């Protein structure tokens, strides 16, 4: 590859990376709105419209920034860390392009660690408030995270085994070239495991209820109870982005079609394809939630342990059940 | 219906524990304790009701206002101990030998020595600094910590402070601190003519309009010697069941919502709206205000039996969907059981008692109109959230059967026998008094009123079933986990306003 071609590729990749950050940042609240709208319609309510989360964010941003007495820098910086990690992940993972100039950082372990960094920052902020709810939420979130993170790692690792690389871009590209691999036992097991932990990580039913007002049952909401105004807006926005990222990761790892390589012409198609995939997944998740109830808190580890076992089986299958 | 037999006995303070114990041993229930500030003395009335015979027995004890001391009955009756603490806070009557003589109604910022229900109390003085901290029992041990919740909550609910002592997520101890909504309702009754006090009775607890209004009207009618026609009593019974219906349907939906199953809540909400609109057709008010009045009742229209039957089928279907859902059933089953023994000791009432196996229902035990044969009283054994859910679901069917039975041959219109046709009974030296007992949707409501010779109210005492049931909640919750608290709380669904008057 000549230097000129290489430069063109990296320029296209940079445009692609920028475009996917913008898409995730702008689209995440719309996804949340869409999911709420799906739920509302299925429950026979009119719903507030899929732009309502953006209206809520605008309202929150215009409010005065206040922080509780006695909280320190951890409380103030946690929303920034949360949003920052979400944006970095949005830039590096194969959302619309596999040729991101930050592709080197799109490593499986780096992405899982970035997700965990955001969660830990928020949990520390919950502890920093010194309130019972912050501590309770942080303790529950850590319990969930301790069970979720290994599953994310192991299930994506199962996918990386046939590829021979833990780079997410490489996994996606390889799936594009060998689509039959999606139907392999390892891939199916990993898909189920990843879907379960994505639900848990984003605080959806049956693990957590994002729309509850009952303080004592909250996990994620309990940690952020003390946030208000622009800080709360940042937390809400970042949480929506994390949901989008996890759904997008599930979508592109198991159905990468439509994603752009190095070609800039494919980029608009790739963005639309990604939005459609995530919207379908989100809609399906919301529709599934309507018919679900929240698990008893002590049943959550059983669910997550089950998904971890699936992920382990996926790894085993990827070694032993290799197509000849 | 012949009016129930009520006997009043004057006893002196020394004989009170013996007499009370004899009545309780005879199967009576301590339904109400009311203090009165007569011109020359303080007087305490203990009302006992006998569930099998519907006999009501009152013990009157006169107390010296200069040294207001009574022997405590807390040792033989748990509810009596709570009534005594209430009496101490509002009248300054000291229960001697009470095992826990702490404040109940008046929080610590209320001034010492000021008893708002006394006639000479005057306007409330300035609230001062809290007289000492409120002593919560500290649970100690490795890993034990406290979670304080409320009195301001994230949802639109009434104020209550809950202090959980927990290890991990398991509740070791829960202390519910209530009494944030004291409005002095009983004092507002005093001096009003009964007809002017009916709107007040309608607002004692917003979701129990008919229950409290009816208990108040029954009490006033008994005091004034007014007889209410059987047709009007049946109209009142219809209204009482309509109130039970909409509240039960609301709470079944809320229970589903508390386990995160919002579509069941939406469906129960749809049925609830049908019932509220039916209420508006029947009484002109969605919460049934204006339906019951002194001497009678108003029915603008008669509920259509076919509509109610379709609602019954609808509710049965949604209930079956809820209980058929494995996660919902798992969340309900075995959660926060209240044993029959605990329910009996605490004097629990209503569906809370029936879910724990106590067969108590004032519609059968203290009837103001005969509901047989439509009346059935379902009971369950397990006392958990599931039992409370199922009891209420079954009571919906039972209520609809009663309403459909009563509406047969009932005509719309207003019936009233107020003011009474007969002259009031000749003064007998003792003020005219009356008692009303009604099975509201939460449980047995008891009102007792006394009238002056000119017909004005000198005292109205209100007992909401929540007053009896609140102590059952922390008991049922010991050993439960913190995230289940909202669900359990909703399964009891006790009134804050009805408890704290």
From TrEMBL, chain A:
Keyword Transmembrane: yes
InterPro entries documented for this protein: ComplexI_Subunit1, NADH_UbQ_OxRdtase_su1/FPO
GO cellular component: a single term: plasma membrane
Organism in which the protein naturally occurs: Actinomadura syzygii
Name the record gives this protein: Formate hydrogenlyase
Pfam families to which the protein is assigned, alphabetical: NADHdh
Molecular function in Gene Ontology: lyase activity
Location(s), subcellular: Membrane
Chief location category: membrane
Membrane topology: Multi-pass membrane protein
Keywords: Lyase, Membrane, Transmembrane, Transmembrane helix
TM region positions: 12-35, 80-102, 108-130, 142-162, 240-259, 265-291, 303-322
UniProtKB/TrEMBL annotation, chain B:
Pfam families: Complex1_30kDa, Complex1_49kDa, NiFeSe_Hases
Position of the signal peptide: none
Stretches assigned to the NADH-quinone oxidoreductase subunit D domain: 258-407
Binding site for Mg(2+): 186, 462
PANTHER family: FORMATE HYDROGENLYASE SUBUNIT 5-RELATED (PTHR43485:SF1), HYDROGENASE-4 COMPONENT G (PTHR43485)
Record SUPFAM superfamilies: HydB/Nqo4-like, Nqo5-like
One Gene Ontology cellular component annotation held by this UniProt entry: plasma membrane
Keyword Cell membrane belongs to the record: no
Subcellular locations according to the entry: Cell membrane
Native organism: Actinomadura syzygii
InterPro entries assigned: ComplexI_49kDa-like, NADH_Q_OxRdtase_suD, NADH_quin_OxRdtase_su_C/D-like, NADH_UbQ_OxRdtase_30kDa_su, NADH_UbQ_OxRdtase_CS, Ni-dep_hyd_lsu, NiFe-Hase_large
Protein name per the record: Formate hydrogenase
Record bears the keyword Acetylation: no
């Amino acid at each position: 590859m000549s230097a000129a071609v290489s430069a063109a590729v990296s320029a296209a990749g940079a445009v692609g990376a920028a475009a996917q950050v913008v898409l995730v940042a702008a689209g995440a609240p719309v996804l949340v709105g869409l999911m709420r709208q799906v739920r509302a319609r299925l429950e026979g309510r009119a719903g507030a419209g899929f732009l309502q989360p953006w209206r809520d964010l605008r309202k929150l941003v215009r409010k005065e920034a206040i922080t509780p007495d006695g909280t320190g820098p951890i409380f103030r910086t946690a929303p920034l860390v949360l949003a920052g990690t979400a944006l970095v992940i949005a830039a590096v993972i194969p959302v619309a392009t596999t040729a991101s100039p930050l592709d080197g950082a799109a490593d499986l372990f780096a992405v899982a660690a970035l997700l965990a960094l955001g969660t830990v920052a928020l949990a520390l902020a919950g502890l920093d408030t010194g309130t019972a709810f912050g501590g309770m939420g942080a303790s529950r979130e850590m319990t969930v995270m301790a069970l979720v993170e290994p599953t994310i790692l192991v299930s994506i690792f199962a996918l990386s085994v046939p590829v021979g690389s833990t780079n997410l871009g490489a996994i996606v590209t390889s799936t594009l070239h060998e689509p039959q691999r999606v139907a392999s036992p390892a891939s199916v097991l990993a898909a189920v495991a990843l879907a379960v932990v994505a639900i848990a990580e984003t605080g959806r039913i049956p693990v957590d209820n994002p729309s509850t007002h009952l303080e004592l049952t909250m996990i994620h909401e309990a940690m952020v109870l003390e946030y208000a105004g622009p800080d709360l807006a940042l937390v809400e926005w970042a949480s929506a982005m994390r949901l989008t990222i996890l759904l997008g990761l599930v979508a592109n790892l198991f159905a990468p079609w439509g994603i752009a390589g190095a070609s800039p012409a494919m980029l608009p198609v790739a963005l639309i394809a990604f939005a459609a995939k995530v919207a379908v997944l989100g809609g399906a998740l919301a529709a599934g939630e309507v018919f679900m109830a929240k698990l008893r808190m002590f049943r959550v580890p059983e669910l997550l342990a089950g998904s971890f076992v699936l992920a382990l089986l996926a790894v085993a299958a990827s070694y032993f059940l290799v197509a000849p | 219906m012949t009016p129930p037999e009520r006997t009043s006995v004057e006893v002196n303070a020394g004989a009170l524990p013996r007499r009370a114990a004899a009545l309780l041993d005879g199967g009576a229930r301590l339904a109400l304790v009311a203090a009165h500030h007569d011109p020359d003395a303080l007087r305490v009335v203990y009302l006992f009701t006998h569930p099998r015979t519907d006999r009501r027995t009152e013990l009157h004890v006169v107390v010296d206002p200069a040294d207001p001391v009574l022997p405590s009955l807390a040792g033989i009756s748990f509810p009596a101990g709570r009534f005594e603490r209430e009496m101490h806070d509002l009248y300054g009557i000291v229960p001697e030998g009470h095992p826990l003589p702490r404040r109940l109604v008046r929080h610590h910022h209320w001034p010492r020595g000021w008893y708002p229900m006394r006639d000479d109390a005057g306007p409330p003085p300035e609230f001062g600094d809290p007289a000492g901290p409120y002593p919560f029992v500290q649970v100690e041990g490795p890993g034990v910590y406290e979670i304080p919740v409320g009195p301001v909550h994230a949802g639109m609910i009434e104020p209550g402070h809950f202090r959980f002592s927990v290890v991990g997520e398991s509740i070791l101890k829960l202390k519910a601190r209530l009494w944030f909504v004291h409005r002095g309702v009983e004092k507002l009754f005093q001096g009003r003519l009964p007809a002017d006090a009916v709107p007040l009775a309608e607002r004692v607890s917003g979701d129990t309009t008919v229950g409290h209004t009816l208990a108040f009207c029954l009490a006033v009618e008994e005091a004034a010697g007014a007889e209410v026609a059987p047709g009007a009593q049946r109209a009142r019974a219809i209204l009482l069941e309509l109130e039970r219906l909409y509240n039960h349907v609301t709470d079944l939906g809320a229970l589903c919502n508390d386990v995160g199953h919002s579509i069941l809540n939406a469906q129960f909400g749809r049925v609830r709206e049908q019932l509220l609109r039916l209420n508006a057709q029947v009484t002109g008010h969605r919460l049934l205000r204006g339906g019951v009045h002194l001497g009678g009742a108003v029915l603008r229209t008669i509920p259509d039996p076919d509509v109610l039957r379709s609602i019954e089928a609808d509710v049965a279907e949604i209930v079956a969907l809820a209980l058929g859902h494995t996660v919902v059933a798992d969340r309900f089953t075995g959660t926060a059981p209240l044993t029959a023994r605990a329910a009996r000791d605490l004097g629990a009432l209503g569906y809370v008692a029936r879910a724990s196996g106590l067969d108590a229902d004032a519609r059968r035990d203290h009837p103001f109109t005969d509901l047989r044969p439509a009346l059935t009283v379902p009971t369950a054994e397990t006392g958990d959230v599931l039992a409370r859910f199922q009891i209420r679901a079954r009571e919906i069917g039972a209520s609809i059967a009663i309403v459909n039975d009563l509406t047969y041959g009932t005509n719309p219109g207003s019936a009233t026998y107020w003011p009474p046709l007969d002259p009031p009974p000749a003064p007998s030296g003792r003020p005219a008094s009356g008692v009303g007992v009604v099975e509201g949707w939460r449980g047995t409501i008891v009102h007792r009123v006394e009238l002056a010779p000119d017909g004005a109210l000198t005292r109205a005492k209100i007992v909401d079933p929540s007053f009896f049931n609140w102590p059952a909640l922390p008991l049922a919750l010991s050993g439960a986990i913190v995230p289940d608290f909202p669900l359990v709380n909703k399964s009891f669904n006790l009134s804050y306003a009805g408890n704290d008057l």
